[in-house]
Amino acid sequence: MGTRRETMRNLAFPISAGAGLAILAAMATPALAQGRAKPQPVFDLVSEGHLKVLTATAWNDVDGLIVSGLVRRAPLWKTGVSGHLDVEAYDAAGARLGSSSVVWRGSLGGGGHNQPARYRADFPDLSAVQVARVAVRYSPLAHAAEPSEAAR
């Protein structure tokens, strides 16, 4: 039979693991409530030049499908990055259902820090059920982009 300290030490890991699972479950609940659960389309994240497309996710909103995610400056690039993202939605047969050109929100970590920035593309009248694939591509040209809703 051990001391009380040994008993508490043996219980510390199961308690902390249970708390971690509770936190993960709490984070997943809002995503399910907002319609971010399945089905998720396949994402083609195309990083080129000085920008890396890190993530993408899609969910249904009242007005249609929303695609959002994170971008980051390329690791060895130390100055600003200009341009836009072309976000395109495709059905299962490969037909393009819609496209949007957006800019990311934020400066991509000025001052030596490489912080990610968020982007968001809205597709009115589309739903996640219709979309089988979403392509997110960086373009260094700034002429075609409009500020995303997240940047306003």
From TrEMBL:
Signal peptide residues on this chain, from the entry's feature table: 1-33
Q: Which UniProt keywords apply?
A: Plasmid, Signal
Protein name as catalogued: Tat pathway signal protein
Upper lineage is: Bacteria, Pseudomonadati, Pseudomonadota, Alphaproteobacteria, Caulobacterales
